[in-house]
Design goal:
The protein is of the alpha+beta class. The chain folds into three domains: 7-78, Uridine Diphospho-n-acetylenolpyruvylglucosamine Reductase, domain 2; 86-195, 2-Layer Sandwich (Uridine Diphospho-n-acetylenolpyruvylglucosamine Reductase, domain 3); 210-292, UDP-N-acetylenolpyruvoylglucosamine reductase, C-terminal domain (Uridine Diphospho-n-acetylenolpyruvylglucosamine Reductase, domain 1), CATH 3.90.78. The chain is built from six helices and 18 strands. The protein has helices at residues 40-49, 102-111, 127-133, 195-208, 228-234, 263-281; strands at 13-18, 30-35, 56-59, 65-67, 72-78, 86-88, 93-97, 136-137, 140-141, 146-153, 158-162, 167-169, 172-174, 180-188, 241-242, 245-247, 255-257, 290-292. It has a five-stranded antiparallel β-sheet, with helices on one face. It has a four-stranded mixed β-sheet with strand order 1-2-5-3, with no helix packed on it. It has a three-stranded antiparallel β-sheet with strand order 15-16-17. The longest helix has 19 residues, at 263-281. The two termini are 17 Å apart.
Amino acid sequence: MSFAVPSQFSSRVRFAEPLSRHTSWHVGGPADIFFIPRDRADLIAFLKALPEDVPLLWLGLGSNLLVRDGGVRGVVISTREALDRIERRDERDVYAEAGLPCAKLARACARWDLGPAEFFAGIPGTVGGALAMNAGAFHGETWRQVRSVETIDRHGEVRERAATQFQVSYRHVASPAEGEWFLAATFHFEGGSSEEATRALLERRRETQPIGEWNCGSVFTNPPGDHAARLIEAAGLKGLRSGGAVVSTKHANFIINEGSASARDIETLIHTVQQEVERRHGCRLVPECRVVGEAA
C-alpha cells in the first residue's frame, strides 16, 4: 500500500487491522488500512485525500460479508460509529444514515408508530448494507420504503437521488452511476407499527434462526418459488461441515463458525452446498453474502 495517510487522520487509522474483529462470521485477514471517521465531514476530507488508484471497501456491521483469509488490499472504511444518525423528518418520513443498525431503525419506527418497519428488526446489518442489496426479512423489503437516498463518491462528493433513479429487484440494486456508495436514506411509511409487533418478530427470529452463534445471516438467496433453506435441508445437508464451519441444524440457510473456522472453511462449505443442491434438485443456489479479499 503506497498511500501515505495524512497526519490529520492518524488517530482514526489502523494498519493491518484483522477484519475478523469486524465481521459477524469472525473470520478474515487484515485490511491494509482501516479508517474510522469521526463524522461526515471527516469522512469527506479523507476521501478527498485518497488517491484514485487505492481500492476502497465500505464496512458496516460486517454481516452478509465473507472476508478471505489473505485480507483486503487498500482501505476499509467503517461506517458504524460515525454515520448512525436517525431523525423523524415529518409525519411519515424518517431519515437514517448508512451506519445505523437496521434493528435501531425498526425500534425507532415502532416508538413513532410508523410502518411497515418491523421487518427491519430481522435484518442483521446496517441501513447502508440494506440499501446496497435491497435486504429484506419476514416479507418486507428495504426499497419498498425508500423515498430518496444520499450517496457519496470516492472524491467526497455528496448527491441526493430519488428512489426512482435506481433499478431494484430481489436482493439487487443497480445504481444510475458507478462509484457511489450510500450515505443515508429517507424512508416513507404509510401505516402504523408497534413495539409489540417488533418484539414478536424478534422472538420469531430467535426461535427459527441461530441467533447468538457466529454467522453472516442468510447465505443464499431464495430461488423463484422456493426457499434455499428447504432445498438445503431436503438435500440432507444440515450439520454438514468443513473444518470449523457447519451448516446450522436450526436453519439450513445459515453457516456457523463454531469458533475455529477459517474463511476458507466457510467458502468451501458454501461451494459444497451449491454443488449438492444442484446435483439433487437441479437448482444452483446463488450466494446472498458478498465474498471479498484475497486467499491466504
